[in-house]
Specification:
Blueprint (H helix, E strand, L loop, with lengths): L5 H48 L3 H4 L5 H13 L1 E6 L4 E4 L4 H12 L5 E8 L2 E12 L2 E10 L7
Antiparallel strand pairs: 1-2, 1-5, 3-4, 4-5
């Protein structure tokens, strides 16, 4: 066994603590950051979906600050919307590739809850989308809002 004097033991303890804290931060920080960015992305999508469904509500709740105004503008640009009715296909909305539309519609038709959060990978990029089921006189309709992951995979 190696004998260490008091100074060496203090330095060894200090270096060990720094390495442990650094290792914990290196492991936990990216995981929590990725989770936070995912939750924030879904929140933006749901907020834009609500704004799309109730456009007059924006006039009742004006932006609270200049930053809020800019965030709303950026979110409007980055969130796409499309609508499906029964199982007849797309009614209207932003264009998406057929593979993406097929996967989105499969998840929508099999969804048991009123709102569902999903993600898919297309061409090595992640697409987050929220499906909101609406009951109409013509049957079930689905409001699908989607957004590309722009930050999460960079970490």
């Amino acid at each position: 066994m190696i004998k260490l004097n008091l100074t060496q033991r203090i330095w060894f303890s200090f270096i060990s603590i720094i390495l442990m804290v650094g290792l914990l931060i290196g492991i936990i920080y990216p995981i929590s950051l990725k989770s936070t960015l995912t939750d924030e992305t879904y929140r933006i999508i749901e907020q834009e979906q609500e704004r799309f469904a109730n456009p007059s509500r924006d006039r009742l709740l004006p932006p609270q600050s200049e930053i809020d105004f800019i965030e709303r503008r950026e979110a409007e640009r980055s969130v796409g919307h499309l609508f499906l009715m029964n199982q007849f296909g797309r009614l209207e909305g932003d264009p998406v590739p057929n593979d993406v539309l097929r996967e989105m519609s499969d998840k929508a038709y099999n969804q048991m809850t009123r709102r569902g959060r999903y993600e898919l990978t297309y061409n090595e990029a992640t697409l987050f989308y929220v499906v909101f089921k609406v009951y109409t006189t013509g049957g079930e309709a689905y409001h699908i809002s989607w957004m590309w992951d722009t930050y999460r995979d960079q970490w």
